[in-house]
Specification:
The chain has 114 residues and is an alpha+beta fold. It has three helices and ten strands. The chain is globular and about 35 Å long.
């Protein structure tokens, strides 16, 4: 994973966050299950992901994921705007989540990380 950030971010709905906390793992959102991998975003991609895929939704959470903890399950692949996005080809274990909290935005539209 050389050259890529050490951390990535998963946006979760309240029920999805509860699943992660209650079971210690997250199998994926409907789009993740359909695509065969869990979609993550790098820090610079996070606001765009929230704006595009979660517009108008409340009660959202962010999980900060330690990519090294997931080893070979992480692949950086071309997605929106031809940018490389981190994808997990496995369930997301709570052991790889180093922080989590509600989605909060700065006045400039950026995302406040947990």
């Amino acid at each position: 994973m050389s050259g890529h950030p050490a951390y990535a971010y998963k946006v979760l709905t309240a029920p999805q966050m509860a699943e992660l906390l209650d079971t210690g793992r997250f199998a994926g959102a409907p789009v993740d299950l359909a695509d065969g991998y869990i979609h993550l975003s790098a820090e610079a991609q996070l606001a765009g992901t929230i704006d595009k895929h979660f517009a108008g939704q409340a009660d959202l959470f962010i999980a900060t994921v330690d990519l090294a903890a997931l080893g070979d399950a992480v692949r950086w692949e071309v997605s929106r705007g031809d940018a490389l996005f981190p994808h997990i080809y496995a369930e997301l274990p709570m052991a790889a989540v180093i922080a989590h909290g509600p989605v909060a935005r700065r006045s400039d539209g950026g995302v406040i990380l947990p």
